Amino acid sequence: QSALTQPASVSGSPGQSITISCTGSNNDVGGYNYVSWYHQHPGKAPKLLIYDVTNRPSGVSPRFSGSKSGNTASLTISGLQADDEGDYYCCSYTTKSTRVFGSGTTVTVL
Amino acid sequence: EVQLVESGGGLVQPGGSLRLSCAASGFTFSRSWMHWVRQAPGKGLVWVARINSDGFSTSYADSVKDRFIISRDNAKNTLYVQMNSLGVEDTGMYYCARQESGIIAMDVWGQGTTVTVAS
User: Fold this and answer.
1) CB atoms < 10 A from the CB of B8, how many?
2) Interface residues on A facing B, Cβ-Cβ cutoff 8 A
3) Which of A46, A84, A90, B85 might form a disulfide with A22, Cβ 3.0–4.6 angstroms?
4) Do residue A45 and residue B47 have CB atoms under 8 angstroms apart?
5) CA–CA separation, B50 vs B98, rounded Å?
6) Is the dihedral of CA A68, A74, A80, A86 positive or negative?
7) CB-based contact (8 Å) between B28 and chain A?
8) Cα A19 to Cα A11: distance, rounded to the nearest angstrom
9) How far is CA B27 from CA B50, B52, B78, B108, in A?
10) How far apart are CA B21 and CA B79, in angstroms?
């Protein structure tokens, strides 16, 4: 199972909005509404931001939102803040009942 | 406090074996599905394996199938992964993660344990 495709890096200024894409296939992203997003600061464990494409766990800021169209899911971060820097990963359920992560995107706040 | 604590990592020679453990606390472990996820140094997250709540259903990434075995002891609130025939490509940080009932995502993560495969 190849990793889902994410842009290597995305940057934005404080207060701006950015969007990270996550492209898969009909066997994963396009076939199920089970895409999740994670944020990882360097040297730390990942943190769940979004599950089931659009849902935010309790305690996650509403600045984070998810969507999906066809085989591509997206994470939008609005009102970009310094603490939003780090790596972001998407993850999808697959037809084999496995999971597959995206290649990861490094977000830089300018 | 909901917590996952991994242990068992270390240095192992190519071809060797290692068993990792993940101790769970602060939630009803027996109701949660569990995952192992790994991350090679400087690289991205890679899903490794998953086990359902009663331990009778498992699935694996192709890269570890037939070499790794995920298991759990609900009486001890502990998740395991037995890793055999280890290669240098298995080097990395290994995280255990919880999949809470009702969602298809990993909502709680441990801090990880490091596995180094080298001669």
Assistant:
1) 15
2) 1, 3, 32, 34, 36, 38, 40, 45-48, 51-52, 55, 57, 87, 89, 91, 93, 96-104
3) A90
4) no
5) 10
6) positive
7) no
8) 10
9) 18, 16, 12, 11
10) 6
